[in-house]
Write a structure and sequence with these properties.
Length: 125
């Protein structure tokens, strides 16, 4: 089976940092662009960041610019999201997604072929 397994979530105070990991198996990792989305209670799942499968070009949402960095390690078939200067508005369930067509900031949740189960990030004041 295709599996995307997120880890690294938890609770952190405002201004702190977390690094999320998404371990991928069951597909040809190098053929897939990877993305992170998030969903807060009562809100739709929104795009956070994405990384291309070949060029390593990245895209991040406006709210993440300068704070979040997406990266991938093809040897480990893992994608990461380094989150710095976190605020309570970043509290959400974060999901790892995969698709063969890199959409950059235009990506929506509907574009993803595969999803992880999500992991909770809580930021408190």
């Amino acid at each position: 089976q295709v599996q995307l397994v997120e880890s690294g979530g938890g609770s952190v105070q405002s201004g702190g940092s977390l690094r999320l990991s998404c371990a991928v198996s069951g597909l040809t990792f190098g053929n897939y662009a990877m993305a992170w989305f998030r969903q807060a209670p009562g809100k739709e799942r929104e795009f956070v960041a994405a990384v291309h499968q070949n060029s390593m070009i990245t895209a991040v949402a406006d709210f993440a610019e300068g704070r979040f960095t997406i990266s991938r390690d093809d040897a480990k078939t893992t994608v990461y999201l380094q989150m710095n200067i976190l605020t309570p508005e970043d509290t959400a369930v974060y999901y790892c997604g995969a698709d063969t067509v890199f959409g950059g900031t235009t990506w929506t949740a509907a574009h993803m072929t595969y999803w992880g189960k999500g992991i909770l990030v809580t930021v408190f004041s």
